[in-house]
Prior knowledge:
Layout lengths: L1 E5 L2 H23 L5 H29 L7 E6 L4 E6 L2
Antiparallel strand pairs: 1-3, 2-3
Helix pairs in contact: 1-2
Amino acid sequence: MKTVGLVTLEEKNEIQTLFERRNGLNELAKILTPDNEALYQKLVKDMGETGTKFQKWWDSMATKYQWEGSENGHWEINFETCEIFLIDNN
Length: 90
């Protein structure tokens, strides 16, 4: 794990909201069945939209701050300090 950057409090709040929403939707998906088709379709749509916004945030911040990356790695944020870490999966 290597520190590669820092984001503003506002930027951190944006990704934290998306992170919490994505996790909540994933938990809901574990208990919701396709029997309730309307709710299930809404969940699937919301999961897709939230996932897209989540990835766009990371892409945008990586471009803005020019974070070091790794082909087999990913970034993580410390929500308490706003630090960004590169986690190398090798």
